[in-house]
Design brief:
384 residues; mainly alpha; 2 domains; two-stranded antiparallel ribbon; 17 helices; 2 strands
Length: 384
């Protein structure tokens, strides 16, 4: 029972109602390059340092991926010995399928640390030798005496690889590294909330980013994105609560073991309805559709219909009636069945309902704010 109550305050990492692409588009608009599975900030340096070492060894393209993998696995050893949080791959080691480099590639590219805009990690590996040679100054054979300046693979001001790396690696972010990252984010993410927060980082941060003074006082486009995300997050919280309320009701009716859950979700829906009723402005889905479309991630038709049906119904009958509304319950059931199929849908398959832990994908979307808070905490600690 306590677990259900605790989870009311958590942001869901699942995507039970198929809204993940909208969440991700808003996350990228707010905090470019940050993902939910990133941990410690110094990985942003570990990965380029590994690749620069491999480039200096003139590794051929067909061996680049494997050599990089070996180096990343080797890096796990000294990090694991630190007995600190955030080490990626300590259990799986050489069997790890998603390496730190793939986890952090998005921010390396987005923050301009990896200099080939749009270049994926596999693209880099396949052209490893070619890009390495192009990054150095060479005399053109067809025009002797003329030096050709190729594009560097990694930012020219990237701090030097520490002596003894990777065997002596640690998570302590040095001041020079923190300043480098601060400059990169301010330059490449200008006009976002992330850049605004990074410019004056602090360690004491609000539970929700829309409560941060820098967010509240942001002007122009930043304030607009923050408000759209805040309003959408509140709407989605209600959708998730009603979905879990329906699961609790069905579990009780079929198996007789979820009466407490039904009561807890009923109370949570009432609390949500009260908070939504206190909103001074109604949420307009058109602002969200315009934002995600402008970012190249337009909502699909089923997402639009589902969200607009929900918001229209809220306006028509009031938020306090949503949890028991037959139309909304039908739409949520249809949505789950379309996304998962009858066999995997909890509202359709009693066996899947038995697997339900009492809380699935509850809470407000936080758009990776939890990870951003960690990033800012580390950054601020190093700069001060």
């Amino acid at each position: 029972m306590q677990r259900v109550l605790d989870l009311f305050g958590e942001s869901g990492t699942l995507d039970e109602l198929g809204l993940g692409t909208l969440r991700d588009a808003l996350s990228d608009a707010l905090f470019p390059g940050v993902t939910s599975i990133q941990t410690r900030l110094r990985y942003v340096f570990f990965i380029p340092w590994i690749y620069r070492m491999l480039e200096s060894r003139r590794i051929p393209a067909d061996r680049a991926a494997e050599q990089a993998r070996q180096m990343e696995v080797r890096l796990m050893e000294p990090l694991a010995e630190l007995d600190e949080w955030g080490v990626i791959g300590t259990s799986a080691r050489h069997k790890l399928r998603r390496l730190p480099s793939s986890v952090y590639w998005s921010c390396l590219r987005r923050w301009g640390i990896f200099r080939h805009e749009g270049g994926s990690q596999s693209w880099y590996h396949s052209r490893f030798a070619q890009l390495r040679e192009a990054a150095v100054h060479v005399d053109r054979a067809d025009d002797p005496g003329v030096t050709w300046h190729g594009q560097a693979n990694w930012h020219q001001r990237l701090p030097d690889t520490p002596e003894g790396f990777p065997d002596s690696a640690d998570f302590v972010l040095r001041e020079t590294e923190a300043k480098f990252l601060q400059g990169r984010i301010e330059e490449t993410c200008a006009g976002t909330l992330l850049a605004r927060l990074v410019s004056s980082p602090k360690q004491e941060l609000a539970e929700h980013f829309w409560e941060e003074p820098d967010a509240v006082g942001a002007g122009g486009g930043v304030a607009e994105v923050v408000e759209i995300a805040r309003q959408f997050s509140l709407q989605v919280e209600g959708m998730r609560l009603v979905y879990n309320y329906m699961l609790a009701q069905k579990r009780r009716d079929l198996f007789g073991d979820a009466e407490d859950w039904v009561g807890s979700y009923s109370d949570a829906c009432t609390d949500w309805a009260h908070r939504l009723s206190n909103e001074t402005e109604q949420f307009d889905p058109e602002t969200l559709w315009a934002l995600v479309a402008a970012r190249g991630a337009p909502a699909n038709n089923q997402q639009r219909v589902f969200v607009e049906t929900w918001t229209t119904r809220v306006d028509r009958i009031g938020p306090e009636e949503m949890s028991e509304d037959e139309l909304i319950q039908s739409k949520i059931s249809d949505r789950e069945r379309r996304l998962k199929g009858r066999h995997r849908a909890r509202l359709e398959n009693p066996n899947r309902l038995l697997d339900w832990s009492g809380a699935s994908d509850v809470g407000r979307m936080d758009f990776n704010w939890f990870r951003v808070r960690t990033l800012l905490d580390e950054l601020c600690g190093s700069l001060s």
